[in-house]
Write a structure and sequence with these properties.
The chain has 376 residues and is of the alpha+beta class. The protein has eleven helices and eight strands. It binds iron/sulfur cluster (SF4) (2 copies). One iron/sulfur cluster binds next to helix 6 and helix 10. The site of one iron/sulfur cluster (SF4) has 13 residues, from helix 10.
Length: 376
């Protein structure tokens, strides 16, 4: 095959054409490998692809309207499907895959990176001498920032100049030397309004003087809040009574105060996924079957995952702020992000339907088991 010239401009032109409905928005950013000089060993692109010379980040917007059901407190599946799981695992990778093939057509390697969570893999003994312990993964938000595509806000969510906090990120590592994009100046997008802090139902985002993470890329310092991932994970995956009506409905009396919890992220995952996916032997009148939490189980079965918080503070409140001050390009929606008052569920002790209920109330919520029918 004859060699074709590959430029950053050609890749971006393709991306503008195929990304976000061909809307012409810049959805690609490029970094040279040198910008990752201070990346930890197990997050360094060269430990996945040693010949890597350039890192490409691609964003795919989250459709704003997919949050509406949760904002109304009436519908949850849309968020998990279109904003989260399927967006990350199906829709967005289609862009990454097409751009990878385009780069390969020019004779360069293009390693598409699955966006795993680097911190979740234990540092196992090194199975191959001289190589870092698997699994190596990029921190996709830091990579996107190093590619000049935006910046990480105080909430730890990546902010994009057009879509604000409404993006998912993909990466490609290539041996092509491509012109890097300039870095965004810290503070361009995150204005430290701190609206994400009180609006997070998990109390997971620290206040202004709380703990933070700082990194340097090409001499510029970026800082964001050190989010409490135990509280966020517990809320996001449905065991915070403030954000999950399904917890209240199917686990009445479960009054764990997540906003003060010190549980680790791993423990929060263990509890939320075990409870969300568990089976139980009694049947529930509304959702036939034996799921312990039928609504959560239904979301997981249909959408491939379970997400309940809907990023109320870190995405929706930030989005409201960014649109109001016209800090992002896509700010012209007719309906506000929160068209009505915010909803939040009251503590179990004040709630006769979700509190520590008496036996009488429990029997109203659940069918009495029919021992003769063999349900025990
Ligand atoms: S709401 Fe957004 S802009 Fe405001 S502090 Fe949080 S991340 Fe920054
Ligand atoms: S996902 Fe929910 S709990 Fe987690 S930081 Fe965002 S608003 Fe807070």
């Amino acid at each position: 095959m004859s060699e074709k010239r590959l430029t950053a401009g050609a890749i971006k032109e393709l991306a503008r054409r195929i990304g976000a409905g061909g809307g012409g928005v810049e959805i690609i950013g490029i970094a040279n490998i040198e910008r990752f000089a201070e990346a930890p060993e197990r997050m360094h692109p060269a430990n996945i692809f040693p010949d890597c010379r350039s890192v490409i980040s691609i964003v795919q917007p989250i459709p704003r309207s997919t949050y509406r059901g949760i904002t109304e407190g009436t519908h949850w599946n849309n968020y998990t499907y279109y904003s989260y799981n399927r967006l990350n695992t199906v829709f967005r990778p289609m862009l990454t895959e097409e751009i990878s093939r385009f780069i390969e057509e020019h004779g360069y390697e293009a390693v598409p990176v699955y966006p795993g969570v680097p911190e979740s893999y234990p540092n196992n003994p090194n199975p191959i001498p001289g190589r870092p312990s698997p699994d190596i993964n990029l921190n996709v938000r830091i990579a996107a920032m190093a590619c000049g595509l935006g910046e990480i806000g105080w909430s730890k969510v990546f902010l994009h100049p057009t879509y604000g906090p409404r993006v998912r990120i993909g990466n490609i590592l290539t041996d092509a030397v491509l012109e890097p994009d300039p870095l965004l100046k810290p503070g361009t997008l995150c204005k430290r309004c701190m609206k994400c802090v009180p609006d997070c139902p998990g109390n997971a985002i620290p206040g202004k003087n709380g703990p933070s993470i700082k990194i340097r890329i090409e001499g510029q310092e970026y800082e964001w809040g050190d989010v409490n991932m135990g509280r966020c994970t517990a809320t996001h995956h449905g065991i915070n009574y403030k954000a999950s009506p399904f917890l209240k409905k199917y686990f009445p009396g479960f009054n764990l105060e997540i906003t003060e919890s010190t549980m680790s992220e791993e423990l929060a995952y263990k509890i939320t996924h075990s409870l969300g996916l568990a089976n139980w032997y009694r049947q529930n009148p509304e959702f036939p079957g034996t799921a312990a939490n039928p609504y959560i189980k239904q979301i997981a079965a249909h959408c491939g995952y379970l997400a309940v918080c809907g990023a109320k503070g870190c995405i929706r409140s930030c989005m409201e702020f960014q649109e109001k001050i016209h800090n992002i390009a896509q700010d012209n929606f007719k309906t506000p992000v929160f068209p009505g008052p915010h909803w939040e569920l009251c503590p179990p002790k004040d709630d006769p339907t979700g509190g520590i209920v008496e036996k009488k109330a429990l029997t109203e919520l659940y069918q009495e088991p029919d021992r003769d029918a063999g349900q025990w």
